[in-house]
Amino acid sequence: MRKRSVLRNLEHFARCELTLGELSARLHSQGRRITARTSGLPYFGLSSFCKAHSIKVSRHHLENALVKTRIGELSERDLVNWATMILINDAFFWSGEDAHIIGRWICELSLDLRDDNLEPCGTASYGIEG
Asked: Which residue, of 39, 78, 103, 127, is most buried by count of CB atoms within 10 Å of its CB?
């Protein structure tokens, strides 16, 4: 049951119904302790409780994220955080004939090249315990 509720939250995140901060808060409230070795970066791994591909990311997810950003429901920072979490965690996957398009867009959206974010941040390692 506990894993099912975690997966449900990951599905909400994939559909942009939760921001990264909201996902983190919900996982924490479910007894998951989020750890990061490098401060200043909000990303964390999901492999401690989601070892396999569990959430399929489709073209619809990608379009939804872009539309929500365009109409102001998501900030540009939320979009970068969404794409980066999708990209770095094996819990999320894409497959089928659109896989190369989805993967390319997610990679590009995860890049945040604004001047205020170009500080070197070193090597980071993230995980969730619990």
From this structure: 78
Contacts of 69 (CB under 8 A, 6+ apart): 75, 76, 78, 79
CA distance 67 to 74: 9
Helix%, strand%, coil% for the chain, nearest 5: 50, 10, 40
pLDDT per residue as tens digits for the range 61-82 = 999 999 999 999 999 989 998 9
- CB-CB contact of 35 with 129 (8 Å): yes
Alpha-helical regions (H) of the chain: 2-14, 20-29, 59-70, 76-88, 99-110
Residues 6 or more apart whose Cβ sits within 8 Å of residue 48: 127, 128, 129, 130
pTM exceeds 0.85: no
Judge contact between 49 and 6, C-beta under 8 A. yes
Q: Is the dihedral of CA 100, 69, 53, 96 positive or negative?
A: negative
